[in-house]
Amino acid sequence: MKYVLIGNSAAAIGAVEGIRKVDKKGTITILSDEPYHTYSRPLISYYLADKVTEDQMRYRPEDFYALHGVQFLGGRKALAVKTGEKTVVTAEGDIPYDKLLIATGSKPIVPPVPGLDREGVYTFIKFDDVKKIKEVAAPGKRAVVVGAGLIGMKAAEALVQCGVETTVLDLSDRILSSILDTRAAEMVKAHAETKGVAFKLNNTVVEVRGDNKVSSVLLKDNNELPCDIVIVAIGVTPNLDVIKESDIKYNRGILVDEKMQTSVPDVYAAGDVSEGYDLLYGGQRVLPILPNAYMQGEIAGQAMAGAEVQFGGGFAFNAIGLFGLPMNTAGIANPEGSEYEIMVDESSQDKCYRKIVLKNDRVVGFILLNSIDRSGILTGLIREQADVKAFKQDLIRQDFGYIHFAPDVRKAKLTGGKAGD
Fold first, then answer.
1. CATH code for the structural domain at 2-105+239-305
2. Biggest alpha carbon–alpha carbon distance for the chain
3. Which pTM value belongs to this model?
4. Which CATH architecture has domain 324-415?
5. Ranges for the FAD/NAD(P)-binding domain (predicted)?
6. Same fold across 2-105+239-305 and 108-236
7. Which pLDDT tens digit goes with each residue over 137-163?
């Protein structure tokens, strides 16, 4: 059996390990437009800030490909997929497959702003992006980060730690608007400001100015902001380039079934490029989260090798830190509608904030700032869609734990069962 995987991040690595659970002999080829060993993308900001080395960014040990019998073709870009001929087109020649995985991840959204082609303008999702930024980020430089989402805020954190004067812009009225509510966003913004980040919200760049090199940006409010570096971080979109001319069906991401198989037999997709089942919304959605990408890839790999497995679904989950302030968020954190029940506990002095969102006595989302110890239990309750009516008043407690479960449920949890079994 010839397995070909397009991509070299979490979904592809999950697929390799999934395939080898079932098939020890088939050939596995990984195609990647990047030349690097598989690495953890969330660590690129830490590399920029000199917190980790290139070796420490590896997602798997150096001998991973050899141990799993993988032919790694780094720096070889897949240009198209010919499903009728079962080949992947590259500039160096076509590569045949019996089973194919599309795991191309996402690519940055770049708005049509004049001047983005000037030297000094970057995106922030790949290793090559930060390698270029690292050459110019130094004390005395000024940077503008366009976008106050996860990518933009991690870029801002790294730039400040490089000694760069950094301003973050966003059209929204708050930072991290996709994962935080208004109050939590205020607390994180205030914390970042104490570390040196400046913000201009309800604003954005309408023009990048300079000769060949960026020297300033013109803002929506008609003010001009001098800068040496511009980082575009307004979001990402599934990277569908390789299948756009094929008969593989897609919506926002590639459509897959419960085995992660696409509309074309023997072609699978996983990770940020696909639409997996969202447990909370009850439908197919792009779930651009690393753990989901790995799980989908592992299921796809096993299914490609003939195992009867299914992806049970996922949901949004983020565990990050900004300037030492940890935050975990999951599921539906900003609900709209009277069917949701919300519990909040806050201690601004300790920068602690806890928000639990319930629907029909089931946890469907949470925000935890600076008090994240119980996020694993809450995540488990969401995944199991457990009925928490008997102890929901305890969920918001800082010391919430298994001790607050009913005795039979606590016993089941501690012996490996599920709440409600």
1. 3.50.50.60
2. 70
3. 0.91
4. 2-Layer Sandwich (3.30)
5. 1-297
6. yes
7. 999 999 999 999 999 999 999 999 999
